[in-house]
Amino acid sequence: MAQRVTFRRRNPYNTRSNKIKVVKTPGGILRAQHVKKLASRPKCGDCGIALPGVSTLRPRQYATVSKTHKTVSRVYGGSRCANCVKERIVRAFLIEEQKIVKKVVKEQTAAAQKAEKKGKKN
């Protein structure tokens, strides 16, 4: 006769947090062992790819591991991937360049208008 699984359920519903795995004990009894949910890798906030170098854990477990498991030694270390950080730096640089160019053009047009006014007066 087939052995039956001995249940010690948390609740009677087949929810995601109530999954079981059948395990044979050393005494030869089949028991239901509760399986924890799988951890997903932390993702980049900008592009959504998994962050390399950061541990894959359930949210509460990040509190018990050291900082070296949660971050990478870079700007935005445990939050953004290297490509997105590079992109941000380049974008910030280009925006600053654009501002400088705008300012220079404005000064040149102002100087040209001033010279034009002087030319008309003489």
Compute the number of helices: 2
Distance between the ends: 116 Å
Structural class: mainly alpha
User: What share of the residues lie within helices?
Assistant: 25-40%
| Beta content | 5-15%
Weakly predicted, low-confidence segments: none
Q: Write the H/E string, N to C.
A: EEHH
Radius of gyration: 31 Å
Total number of beta strands: 2
Please state the average pLDDT score.
91
Biggest beta sheet attributes = 2 strands, antiparallel
The largest beta-sheet arranges its strands as 1-2
Shape designation: rod-shaped
Keywords: Ribonucleoprotein, Ribosomal protein
InterPro entries: Ribosomal_eL34 (IPR008195), Ribosomal_eL34_C_sf (IPR038562), Ribosomal_eL34_CS (IPR018065)
Pfam family, one: Ribosomal_L34e
Protein name: 60S ribosomal protein L34
